[in-house]
Specification:
The chain is of the alpha/beta class and about 120 residues long. It has 2 domains: about 60 residues, Rossmann fold (3-Layer(aba) Sandwich); about 60 residues, P-loop containing nucleotide triphosphate hydrolases (Rossmann fold), CATH 3.40.50.300. The chain has 5 helices and 4 strands, in the order αβαβαβαβα. It has a two-stranded parallel sheet with strand order 1-2. Strands 3-4 form a two-stranded parallel sheet. The two termini are about 25 Å apart.
Length: about 120
């Protein structure tokens, strides 16, 4: 997962910033804690508009203005999905969650839809 975080962040650095003028940053377990703390401060202060993170590093992050979560893989259980996607749309705000999946893990999304009584757009 750490390599995927790096790939996504590198793509954003190369492309998204040119289009939208927003910087991206990443945090994962191979990045020293001091650098992760600095990255989080930059994000909270608005110096970084996009955060790319592994699930483990994203736990416990409280960002009230988060409006998009992208999951590179669906979580294995419903509660984790609700927790991750619920990081958006707090305090009456709207938010979105994008989840990448493939044929071998599509059953997980169907289970999440069934349990949460929602329907995902594909």
């Amino acid at each position: 997962m750490k390599s995927e975080v790096s790939k996504v962040n590198n793509c954003l650095v190369a492309n998204f910033f040119k289009l939208h003028g927003k910087k991206s940053a990443m945090i994962h377990g191979d990045i020293p804690q001091k650098q992760r703390d600095y990255t989080m401060e930059q994000f909270k202060e608005g110096g970084t508009g996009i955060m790319v993170s592994t699930d483990v590093c994203a736990r416990g992050i409280d960002l009230p203005d988060l409006d998009l979560v992208i999951q590179c893989d669906p979580p294995r259980d419903v509660d984790s999905y609700v927790h991750r996607s619920g990081r958006t749309a707090r305090n009456g705000r709207e938010g979105s969650c994008v989840t990448f999946y493939n044929q071998s893990n599509s059953h997980i999304l169907r289970k999440i839809e069934q349990v949460t009584k929602t329907h995902f757009e594909e």
